[in-house]
Amino acid sequence: MTATRAAARRLGAGLVVLWVAATAAYLALLAAPGDTVDTIVGDGADTPQIRAQIITEWGLDRPAIVQYLDYLLRLVNGDLGRSYLLQRPVAEVIGEQIAPTLTLAVAAAGLGVLLALLIAVATAGDRRPWLRRASSGVELLLVSTPPFLIGIVLLSVLSFRYGLFPVSGDQGIGALVLPAVTLALPIAGLLAQVLRDGIDRALDEPFVLTARSRGVRERTVLLRHALRHALLPAVTLAGWLFGILLGGAVIVEQVFGRPGLGQVTLTAVTSKDMPVVLAVVTLSAAVYVVVNTAADLTYLLVDPRLRRS
Amino acid sequence: MPSNRSRTLAAAALAPLLAVIAGCSTGTTPAVEAAGQPRSGGTLTWAVETEPITLNPHQYAQAKARLLVWNTFESLLTYDKQGKLVPWLATGWQAAPDGLSYTLTLRDGVTFTDGTPFDSAAVKANIDKLREPGYAPGVAAVQLRNLKAVEAVDPRTVRLTLTAPDVLILDFLASPQGAQVSPKSLREAKNLKAGGVDVVGTGPFVLDRYVPGQELHYRRNAGYDWAPPTATHTGLAYLDGITYRFLKESAVRVGALTSGQVQLVEGVPATDQPLVTGNRALRLTRELNSGSAYSYYFNTSHAPFDDLRVRQAFREAVDVDTVLKSVYRDTATRAWSVISPSSPLYDKSVEGGYSGDAAKANTLLDQAGWATRDADGFRVKDGKRLTVRLVQSAPFVRDRRDVLAQAVQAAVKQSAGIDLKVSLVDQGTALEAFERNEYEVFDNSRADTDAGAALNLLLHSKGGINRTRVNDPRIDQLLESGQATADPTKRAGVYADLQQQVIAEQALVLPLYAPADQIAASTSVGGVRFEPTAGVPASAYDLWISK
């Protein structure tokens, strides 16, 4: 019973975050300098007809509170509005670009997690201090280097000099490698540090001593016992991971000439296509909430102690 | 309408800018093609900087989309190298003596790539569509402002009737917005305003694939046989197909070119040019854009620029050559007029009219009453500092125009004690400053083929972006007569008078540089050229690739 209540509370919190994000984006639209119609028109064609259309579609002639509630109602119904710059529904614009970004994000996240696991397991403990120091240095470098630079360096060497991968295009998996690696490296850098710290802490726990004293092999101790304990703090980073992926995708898609949401977002921001910006902000918040709520609910399943707290 | 849209145009036109190493070819067709004789066949990949907002030519608003538009669409007229209008889908045109109607005869045997024949009904369908409320409001309100009626006299003859003489209607007929779209597309296209594979024209190529965010692919139009006289060949396009890939980062475009992943790129900034010029397998070409030069417009509606002497002093306080050199190395072309030096309407006699003479600037300011200086070295009058504000809208700042502004700022401070305050803001804030008249300097350039169209917006008292706020009957009259005069010599005379007024007499602007476009290409590619008059990269029709 308490478990259901805890789950409900977390779902509720997720909805509140979503509502706050949508409201903040909406307030930003209203607070932008100039008339709201001006802001929505952005760089699009600006005529009395289009202005009239915007006023009707956004109901700008009604009281502010009605407009706001109507905006929320439309969001709930999945109506993301219309881009006057592109002359198309926002849902359509985003819909056709979401697949490439998802592909990139999943590939990068998978690669990042895999790399982090390998690095952490190889360098945890105090077996090879030199390797550990070298690895820490590289991780720090990866975390602190902008993805833009990583992308350009990878392209210059692997694509432009040695021609191993195409810069962009629909050449299938080959064109996905460099963008995914570019995004995966900073993720791997940070996750590896967190994982290694976790493993190190776990290795100091009494149960490890017990395991060792039972004669369990060191590798098994590491993989079966210590790593499992280190995974929880890493899962906590899921939300952060998502932020890196979305922010990174904007830059990586730009550098590599890949289609995707990042491109849509960048174009929308630079050309002041407010309906698209609003939709992207709300959508990002929604994904963030879903990822974090899912992580929280996973804890509840994994760790019985949390259900009571 | 115009302010937003025209700024978009201007900025889009300039996006690539600048540059180019001294000594590279500026001619449109090199005497000897490294690629040898033209040959048919093969495909090319071209990396472009900008993805078009729309592929429908009627909705065209980005100079960087022109090279794509003309692959699939064609207009009734076009410009030759001398800036003269010549036939394209129309074989000729006749203006009525009163200038109130134009009769065009259409080429025979032209078909849209969906099989629809091209005839007077098609032309009428296009123009009617353009005037439909909400479809292309900018075109209807500006370019077709004086159009009264369009009439299909017979299948090969169209007549346009005007409410007032307007030679700019011919510029419209040569513009992407005046390009002919299949009437079937106009009726049935899934998303007409965004364009796409189902919005077709009569051009030498057919758009057969569009992957948003990634690339456009065109295949040869197998039935094409109506090239304009400005093309270097006739009949089918040489290439079987061409792919345009969107690569927004210049370093990536150039890298893709040097590694042979693409054969052509446009938009090569100064910093990347040594990579191209230092590579024997590549060639760099550039051309100045037409339209209006990048200039600072002085707001004459209030102090201090309501005083002619202060405007003159500001111009004298800037050594434009030195400033351009420090910002763009030796790659920018100095402008002396609001009109680009590549335009047929350019008046060469305005050159050298002011000289970056600091002593003169100081004398002028002394005379204007700004005789004392404050502790920071800025000039003061009645306890007020000589401050002028330049408001730049961030999305439109290209070609390092923010850096250019800093260089001008330093120059006017050092040589004359003028305080130029530069603020880089979002577009809403910029528009608000313009509406509230809280600025003294406005920066702009436009890429119209006919500079008259740009000047109507910028300098007419009722112009959509008249940010000098000049309200001078002489200037209005010159602009109106420029729009109504058909004779090219008389017309050039009118605009020469106008430039004298604006630059020499009234010092309304400080022209800075003439925007340019660049193409870097593999030497295996032949037929690289720029569109005459517009000065932007031409369509792929004349391109070929050697074996």
Explain the overall architecture.
The complex is a heterodimer of chains A (309) and B (547). Chain A is mainly alpha-helical and 309 residues long. Chain A has 2 domains: 3-90, no CATH class; 94-306, MetI-like (MetI-like fold, Orthogonal Bundle), CATH 1.10.3720.10. Chain A is 80% helix and 1% strand. Chain A is built from 14 helices and 2 strands, in the order H-H-H-H-E-E-H-H-H-H-H-H-H-H-H-H. A two-stranded antiparallel ribbon of chain A has the order 1-2. In chain A, strand 1 (82-83) and strand 2 (88-89) form a beta hairpin. In chain A, helix 6 (129-144) crosses helix 8. The longest helix of chain A has 34 residues, at 90-123. The mean pLDDT of chain A is 83. Chain B is α+β, with helices and mostly antiparallel strands and 547 residues long. Chain B has 3 domains: 38-72 and 203-289 and 516-546, D-Maltodextrin-Binding Protein, domain 2 (3-Layer(aba) Sandwich), CATH 3.40.190.10; 81-182, Dipeptide-binding Protein, Domain 1 (Dipeptide-binding Protein, domain 1, Alpha-Beta Complex); 292-514, Dipeptide-binding Protein, domain 3, CATH 3.10.105. Chain B has helices spanning 2-14, 66-72, 120-131, 137-141, 168-173, 183-188, 250-258, 273-277, 308-317, 320-328, 358-367, 401-416, 427-435, 451-459, 473-484, 488-505; strands spanning 43-48, 77-79, 85-87, 90-95, 101-106, 147-154, 157-162, 205-211, 215-220, 241-246, 264-266, 282-288, 292-298, 333-334, 372-373, 379-381, 384-385, 387-393, 419-425, 441-446, 509-514, 516-522, 525-526, 544-545. In chain B, helix 9 packs antiparallel against helix 11 (358-367) and helix 10 (320-328) packs antiparallel against helix 12 (401-416). The interface between A and B is large, with 48 and 46 residues. Chain B: Residues 84-461 form the Solute-binding protein family domain. Chain B: Its main location: other. Chain B: Pfam families: SBP_bac_5. Chain B: One of its GO terms (molecular function) is peptide transmembrane transporter activity. Chain B: It comes from Micromonospora violae.
